[in-house]
Write a structure and sequence with these properties.
By secondary structure, the protein is mainly beta. It is about 10% helix and about 40% strand.
Length: about 350
């Protein structure tokens, strides 16, 4: 199933199959799942209660996520007399203002994990934990539909609950309808598979090593962005995740930035013209292509950055928790960054306006 509750940005949804069956007792324990919280960091360095709830019936229980100054996530859970506590320290980054926290557990397997990701970068901090107590189904409903009984910092963008162990690490960022140029012409991204080939401008035809996909809440750093044609040479609109990056080159790029090419995050183009946020979606499925050398692929005339995995294959424990877990590590490539400048929002808008003039 996966996502069973989503809350944030005006959304408050619970899965009918789980919560709206009158015969289903909500005091059942959820032995396996994940809680994902995305938050903006406090600009003044104050502690933040990301999500907190305490109940007394049918027995005492609580859950609390806190972000503490200096870089740390503190999680405290209790079920009856069973108390669980863990801390994940992460390196604060002055350039980062958004964090995504993922807490996953499998009570039967004795597994617990907490991870912190920075959506605009490759940084992932992960820590396994002692076996945590399971969540109660009623707690999830209360957190989502009864906010007056919970505490949540105003900087929290959204939280969501899944009944699966959600992956961490490299994330797909392109919707499946995006047309990708292959050796036989354009094909929808969602139809490409291992062994197919795609055309690139710098390296010619390269093979697809793997296509990965994941359905996520359409909120925060996952909220779809529509890149609008004809900006940046697009032949049609493309829908991507906010942190999907376009590779842009040309004489104007060289003149303005002194570089042959630059990277432009989709979120930096959102201005009502070059790009707009898509709304009205509860979830969205993103896809991406793993290519041998992290080559950009051509989509509707523009170049999109492909999935970057760095030296993930050398980190087997981390690899096992990603969307590439089923891929043998000896078949994975090692990627090096091209060293391209990533444009800041005002730079990206300046370039878009210059090309539209």
């Amino acid at each position: 199933m996966s996502w069973i509750a989503i809350s944030g940005q005006g959304q408050s949804w619970v899965c009918p199959a789980v919560f709206e069956q009158t015969s289903a007792p909500r005091d059942l324990l959820m032995a396996r799942g994940s809680v994902v919280i995305e938050t903006r960091l406090s600009p003044d360095g104050r502690p933040q209660t990301l999500l907190s709830y305490e109940r007394r019936h049918p027995w005492a229980g609580s859950i609390s996520f806190q972000a503490v100054p200096g870089g740390g996530i503190v999680l405290v859970m209790s079920q009856g007399e069973d108390v669980f506590h863990t801390v994940l320290a992460h390196r604060p980054d002055a350039r980062t203002d958004v964090l995504r926290v993922t807490f996953s557990w499998d009570s039967e397997a004795g597994f617990g994990r907490i991870a912190v990701e920075r959506p605009e970068s490759d940084a992932v901090m992960v820590q396994t934990t002692p076996p945590p107590p399971p969540l109660m189904i009623e707690d999830i409903y209360t957190l989502t539909r009864r906010p007056q009984l919970c505490e949540m910092d105003e900087d929290v963008v959204f939280f969501a609950v899944s009944d699966e162990i959600e992956p961490i690490g490299p994330m797909p960022l392109v919707t499946g309808q995006v047309p990708v140029l292959t050796a036989q012409g354009y094909r929808r991204l969602s139809t490409l598979h291992t062994g197919d080939t795609v055309r690139t401008r710098a390296n010619g035809i390269v093979p697809v090593l793997r296509r990965v996909s994941r359905r996520v809440p359409a909120l925060g750093s996952f909220q779809p962005v529509r890149l609008r044609a004809p900006y940046f040479g697009l032949q049609q609109d493309l829908v991507v995740a906010p942190h999907q990056r376009l590779v842009i080159g040309g004489t104007d790029v060289e003149y303005i930035f002194g570089r042959e090419a630059v990277l432009v995050p989709a979120v930096s183009l959102v201005n009502g013209f070059a790009a707009v946020y898509e709304s009205g979606h509860l979830t969205v499925r993103y896809h991406d292509l793993l290519l041998p050398g992290h080559e950009p692929f051509i989509a509707a005339g523009a170049e999109l950055e492909s999935l970057y995995i760095g030296r993930l294959r050398r980190r087997r424990a981390h690899l096992a928790q990603t969307l590439l877990a089923s891929c043998p590590s000896n078949l994975l490539p090692e990627h090096a960054r091209a060293g391209l400048k990533v444009l800041r929002p005002f730079e990206a808008i300046t370039l878009a306006e210059a090309r539209a003039a």
